[in-house]
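Lecture notes, unit on protein representations.

Consider one protein chain, 239 amino acids long.
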Amino acid sequence: MIYLCGDTHGNYEIHKLLNEKFISSKEFSKDDYFIILGDFGVFWKDETDEAEKNILEAISKLPFTVLFIDGNHENFNRLFSFKNESKFKGTVGVCGENLYWLKRGEIYEICGKNIFVFGGALSIDKAHRTPNLSWWKQEMPSEDEKEYAIKNIKNFMKNGKSIDIVLSHTAPNSAISRLGYRINSSKIDSTSIFLEHIFFLAKPKEWYFGHFHNDVEFDLDGCKFRLCYDNIVEISNIK
């Protein structure tokens, strides 16, 4: 099974993942996956501190496997320092025992689902943050990452395969508008514009995202969208 929640922001909201009530509620195995939809935030400082060590130790003891995508509040210098590994028919970052980073533009096969992943987003408060201390420019996807994502989807789908699920941190502009958020022209997120293109290219059945600190579900053009934050969402491995 796959389980999802929204932003954990390091020590601030990691309780969503380390929730004893949830952990004891089922019989899990390492073939069950808990995915955080960006702003994981555990690797916030340039050097490992005591808080990070404690979280990583707790994650290593969890009965399921932990995966995360990147958001906008991440120390990308740390993330890019981790070694890559082939897993789930794609490339992941190995960030610790029982902990993997799902990378932008990859298509993974997890629990029988074809899952396209694209993290990142714009920090609208970056003017009040310090570069390489509380804000990193890699929060915004590069042109190479976008080109890789499009090429990967086209190559994948030309053989008759389909994308079942998209996981992202922010969402396509049309989904953001559906949530009722007004898009400020001075703070337009090019990531959301790109994800709009991905929406029509990949034609997924389901799309899960975080970033907006709420729990909302809606349908849009034949796709089930779900904004995740506090609630743990369960995805069956049945097609």
